[in-house]
Amino acid sequence: MTSTRRQVHSPRVRRLARDHGVALDGLVGTGPQGRVTTSDVLRLDVATTLWDNAIAGPQPSGSTPADPPRRTTAVVEVDVTRVAKGTHGLLAAVIEAAVPALRQALPDKGAGVGIRVVAHEGGRERTIRDADRLSMAGLLRALQRAPDEPRAGIDARPGHGAQPEDHSLAVHDAGGDGFLFESLPMAVGDLAALSVGAPVERPAVIAQPDGERGIGIRTCVHLALTYDDQLPRAAVATMLASVRGRLERLGQGVGGASS
Amino acid sequence: MAQLSYRDAVARGIAQEMRRDDRVVLVGEDVAGAGGVFKTTAGLLDEFGPRRVVDTPIAEQAILGAAMGAAMTGLRPVAEIMFSDFFAVCWDIVVNQIAKTRYMTGGQVTLPLVIKTGNGGGLRFGAQHSQSIENWAMAVPGIKVVTPSTPEDVVGLMAAAIRDDDPVIFCEHKGLYSMKAEVADGEIVDTLGTAKVRRAGRDATILALGMMMPRALAAAEDLATRGIDAEVIDVRSLMPLDTRTILASVAKTGRLFTVEENPQVLGWGAEIAAIVADEGFWDLDGPVQRITTPHIPLPSADSLEDLVMPSAESVAGTVEKALQS
Fold first, then answer.
1. Which of A9, A10, A12 to probe by mutation at the B interface, max B CB count within 10 Å?
2. Minimal Cβ distance to A149: which of B252, B284, B325
3. Chain A: closest CA distance from residue B161 (Å)
């Protein structure tokens, strides 16, 4: 007589597997009695992604799966004198400006497609789902909540529970470490990575109320966007210009800052 | 900051509120002249006099009837039921009168009273003086239930209970009366319905209260030496229950264990297991386990009482076995 043991997965593992698109049928895990653990699911997600890339064959662009993705970093300087100071203020303002600009730049703008932001600050990571539906206050609240759980050294697809169709924008607080900008590695699933540099005060040419140009002390940051082939270069230019415009026009009216 | 015993903390909490509010009075068997059979009210008669600190006959229904009448007419009484086992002789006034008055009068009459009681086992008092009745009390709508495990929590939760406009059953664990710990100087007022994370961890959540708290903490330290990082939460208040803290911990660890001095049937752990099944099911990485006494009255023999009550060793053993199976 052959005994067959029913395969049992805990609710936590089943949810994680669903969220990461990992099939559990027939798997033998590393837990007691071969049970699949949450770490197994996360490892499998990475392995599946790499496998899918490997078997996808030559891409239309001519690159092979073994080639590293082609990525470019574009940098702009933005006058953020009008942006609220304080913890998370600059980061929230950048996210609020970047998310609609990214949606504009996306080749597919389906109504069902959400934008997920993964905010990196001082080694902590926070995933903000549906970032395009949050107000500035909502973004600030999201940035103040507890960081995501560390995921056992796996840095593949940021965020728990993201829908597969969601686009992901990684936003890094490079300024927290004093960097003007940082060219960032992108995790699997990220559409682009935006580094927010350290704010610096500098003299800048500004438009005065009488229309003449003058010199003013302005607070500026560098925004560096690392992106791959999914985003056309023209769309990136439009996006960064839009982000800069939104940040510089915050507050009452257009102040005429330029750089 | 000074060392204070759990028993002295009871008197300090009551005295703090009696100094602040003339309406606070204390009634019970031997609470005045004797300072309480467990010495939890020592010094209160001297400071506040016989009109506010009142000895009563051995009649639990009369004690609670007097307290209820005093509360209805504007005082904020603290009544003592010496052993919590004796709630069994006065449940009618607790369940049918005290718990329901606010509802039956449409909110016109509130009963701001505290029933303090010596609860729990481990002191060789036998089956009729050792029960843990917090799970009986939490089943009664209209009653709040508090179960402190440290001297500082005794002071702060007693103050919060006295200031609350609803009836509160305040379960002092008899086995903790002699424990001492640092207590902050000055006025201490805590918040009902809040749990405390006593030890942070990532592998398993252990819930406990009263005398099971120090045992759960000892179990967690033992587990740490075996590579299991347990989070220990002091429930402190069964009604209201801080489900937010409990569910957040389960979301982090995926495993939940309750350590209860009461029998397993309809214990507070059963209610929390049901809440987690409703609201935290997808966070669970294994079944909720309840570590309790068996479904028997607590025995009198020392060796048997030790055998049936959860210990640090039995808690650690249960958690370790569950995580490895």
1. A12
2. B252
3. 31
pTM as predicted: 0.66
> Is residue B177 domain-shared with residue B257, that is, in the same domain?
no
Give the C-alpha separation, A97 to B220, whole Å.
47
Strands, E assignment, B163-271: 168-173, 180-183, 196-199, 204-208, 230-234, 237-239, 256-263
The predicted structure's pLDDT at residue A55: 52
Cα separation, A222 vs B32, in Å, equals 73
B88-140 confidence digits (pLDDT tens) = 999 999 999 999 999 999 999 999 999 999 999 999 999 999 999 999 999 99
The ipTM, to two decimals, is 0.79
More confident residue, A1 or A153: A1
Tokens of A221: 């940051």
Q: How far apart are CA B92 and CA B100, in angstroms?
A: 11
Which residues of chain B lie closer than 8 angstroms to A33, CB-CB? 325
Of B12, B52, B76, B129, the active-site residue reads B129
If we measure between CA atoms, which residue out of B175, B122, B174, B179 comes closest to residue B152?
B179
Angle at A27 between CA A23 and CA A31, to 5 degrees: 115
* Lookup: tokens for A246: 């939104």
Secondary structure of residue B186 in the 3-state scheme: coil
The CATH number covering residue A181 comes to 3.30.559.10
> What CATH number should be reported for the domain holding residue B305?
3.40.50.920
A256 lies in some domain: no
Same domain membership, residue B116 and residue B22: yes
Q: Does residue A83 share a domain with residue A46? A: no
User: How many contacts does A have with B, using Cβ atoms within 8 A?
Assistant: 23
Domain hosting residue B200, numbered range: 196-324
Interface of A with B in 31-60 (CB under 8 A): 32-33, 38
Per the CB < 8 Å rule, is B254 touching A38?
yes
pLDDT in tens, A196-229: 888 888 888 887 888 788 888 888 899 998 887 7
Residues listed for chain B: 325
Structural domain count of chain A: 2
B235–chain A nearest CA distance, Å? 22
User: Do A75 and A51 share a structural domain?
Assistant: no
* Helix/strand number for chain A, H first, E second: 5, 7
Q: What is the DSSP string of A19-61?
A: HHT---TT---SSGGGPPPHHHHHHHHHHHHHHHHHHT-S-TT
A46 and A76 assigned to the same domain:
no
Residues (pLDDT < 50) of chain B are none
Helical packing angle, B243-253 and B268-279, nearest 10°: 70
> Is residue B129 flagged as an active site residue?
yes
Question: Does A205 fall in a domain?
Answer: yes
Q: Which residues 211-240 of A are in CB contact (within 8 Å) with B?
A: none
Decide if B222 is inside a domain: yes
Q: What CATH number did the domain enclosing B11 receive?
A: 3.40.50.970
Burial level of A18, CB count in 10 A (0-12/13-18/19+)?
A: middle
* Alpha-carbon span B211 to B215, nearest angstrom: 7
